[in-house]
Write the structure tokens for this entry.
Amino acid sequence: MKKINKILVSQPRPLSSRNPYADMETEHGVQCDFLQLIKIEGLGVREFRDQHIYLEDYTAVIVNSRLGIDHYFRLAEEMRFSVPDTMHYYCISEAVGNYLQKYIQYRKRKVFVAENNRFDTLLPAMHRRPQEKYLMVLSDVHNDDDLNMFAENNVVVKPAIMYRTVSAQWPESKPFDYDMIVLFTPSGVAALRKNFPDWEQGDTVIACFGANTALALEEAGFRVDIKAPSAKYQSITTAIKDYLEEHQG
């Protein structure tokens, strides 16, 4: 098995210099390159209107990411919709809820935060407001589990696609010569195949996060060498560090 020297991490570079990838570089002498294989594009007003959604019809917005918040307020501005102070926000996490302060004056009575990243923990608050009309901000690539959960619990939610994930163009001047590739989404897998349609994995190690990403890799004909989360690893960085320690000391 060949030594791992260069690792492609298909995520933005961590903001802090103190992070697990920096530790890998120091401890194992590897080079980690951070380059996203995908990019996010916001839907234009015309595309959004094709969904026949009118923002003024809704009294609450469900958001599962900071991206969702950005694109909701972007579209609202482009459509000249003044978001009322009475709007309620149902957020997947405290971090997402706090991000709302970029756009609104944060008040706890109108911002509801899920526990443990689970929207079902917000059901009691939702059931106390039977007249609420919910709009859920989504990407074109999303999981319907939360929408199904709301429906099963008699909460009517309108899905609204506001942004999409597309393949990013690999820089022509940058060689694709990595010993390990770390992927996080099925979209990243599709982008890898689109950018390098003739690429053969060979002895290149592929690490992935998430069951859907692993499935997409297998369906694309790739071998998954490192996977998280699992019974042993909750984080992909811990799984990669253990792999490096086992195979190259």
User: Anything to note?
Assistant: The longest strand covers residues 157-167. The mean pLDDT is 93. The chain has two domains: 6-37+171-248, 41-165. The domain at 6-37+171-248 is CATH 3.40.50.10090 (Rossmann fold).
